[in-house]
Amino acid sequence: MEIFQIVGIGLVATILIVIVKQTRPEFAILISIAAGVIIFSMMLSKIVYVIDTISSLSSRADVNITYFNTILKIIGMAYIVEFASQISRDAGQDSIAMKIELGGKILIMVLAIPILLALMDLIIKILP
Question: Are residues 35 and 53 both part of a single domain?
Fold first, then answer.
């Protein structure tokens, strides 16, 4: 099962980071990034499956493709922001991590505005 591979990579990376951090702390962050990239690359096929499934559902439900693309961008942005902020935290830079998260939240709000406007238009059309 893939979960055991992911957990194994995570645990090996954690042990390596703890050992390396004592002698060469600059390599600890590189190990963390490498482990994250390896785990992410293992999940690419699963991500593609999820995107294809959601795309199929949206086409069956006759949802505007623009909204679907926007939602995918928001989800992708959330994952990227989380990954980057965790790397910053691993490096001991909590303040930078918080700023990355704030920037991500603001950009997500900006991307969500067209969906909110469309929802408001739909509500206004429903109301007498």
Answer: no
pLDDT tens for each residue of 21-54: 889 888 888 998 899 899 989 998 898 898 888 8
Domain residue limits at 13: 1-42
Does one domain contain both 69 and 35?
no
What one-character DSSP code corresponds to residue 13? H
Q: Report how far Cα 36 is from the mean position of its chain's Cα atoms.
A: 12
Domain boundary among 42, 60, 75: 42
3-state secondary structure 34-103: HHHHHHHHHCHHHHHHHHHHHHHHHHHCCCCHHHHHHHHHHHHHHHHHHHHHHHHHHCCCHHHHHHHHHH
The whole-model pTM stands at 0.72
